[in-house]
Design brief:
- It contains 17 helices and no strands.
- It is an all-alpha fold.
- It has a single domain, classed as Up-down Bundle (Growth Hormone, Chain: A), CATH 1.20.1250.
- The longest helix has about 55 residues.
- About 0% of the residues have low confidence.
Amino acid sequence: MTTTRPVRLGLRANLAQFSLLVAVNALVGGVLGQERNVLPLLAERDFRLTAYTALLTYVLAFGVTKATTNYAAGTLADRFGRKPVLLAGWLVAVPVPLLLIWAPNWGWVVAANVLLGVNQGLTWSTTVIMKIDLAGPARRGLAMGLNEAAGYGAVAVTAATTGYLAARYGLRPAPFLLGACYVVLGLGLTTFAVRETRDHARLEAAQHVPRAGGRHDPLHAGLTAREVFGHTSLREPALSAASQAGMVNNLNDGLAMGLFPILFVAGGLSIGRMGVLTALYPAVWGLGQLVTGPLSDRCGRKGLITAGMLVQAAALALVAAGDGFGLWAAAAVLLGAGTAMVYPTLLAVIGDVAHPAWRARAVGVYRLWRDGGFAVGAVVSGVAADLWGVRGAVWVVAAITAASGLVVAARMYETHPRERAG
């Protein structure tokens, strides 16, 4: 005889399942990290790509598919449940390492990144939604900090490991065998251990009390998909400010993925030292979210986001102006710290403002814009690099990032319930 588990909200009440989802998201991040150091070098050395816009086609393909899949993931998670969407994301990832290992031309790499974008959009979006479901309203910042720390910590560890493997054993196949192991583990855990969380969202929706003045419930629980898209993208000040900041944040990451390895190696660094640098940024980003996520629960969201965007702009300026391992390492730490201030806090803003009944769709819209930043970054940084060189591209993105921080300062209001009550 089977017994139905009681549905309760909160991290402590759902600790085992929440911890499992943290581990699953670490594997999601590892799948992304497998190519972070290797593909820019493959493009130059194996496929003889010289134009930066051509090289960055894999970032463009990844960004477009991940962004659109993020949008679909929220709707699919509401319609079919969270676990089926997560499982589908892992199934799509199965061919990715094999395509990268056997690619005879750059088109195979681009095709692998289309599948990788679908994988990341379905799996990462769904783990975010599931953790928000489990955590309830009180500790969203902490929940998102743990989620993003696991994902980007794994990106960093995998980037460092693949840099070592590439330096010792060559660019293929060794780095991508690690990604294949991640896919097998993620698929197995999702199939046999992950449980559905949609009932937790329904419980929170039933208990939901509109906030004072209704400012954070722009209409009501019964919004259409078009209305959710409009509020999250443009009409609701906090949601729209978060969406543009998320896009610019990932514009930065697209630049880092595509051009930082080339800049560092051209500056005289070995592949091994380049791997350390490109891992340092997501490592600080990942670990820093263990601090910044819960800090936003105590101190509020807006100040952290504004400061984080300006810190990222300063870090990019240091990358563009600097030279040598030490200065670039300092810039990577600063860039990771600024990103850590922003990343989980933006997700917490979405959770604060969106009604539980349409929150999954709002997360999907936000992540559509946020991960669209990869595609925008590929185009902007690729064109700028072809016109003015890699350092010129970094300067352009630094200016865009500073402007985004000013938009947050002007448009976003404080969304955390404790801070508003105070």
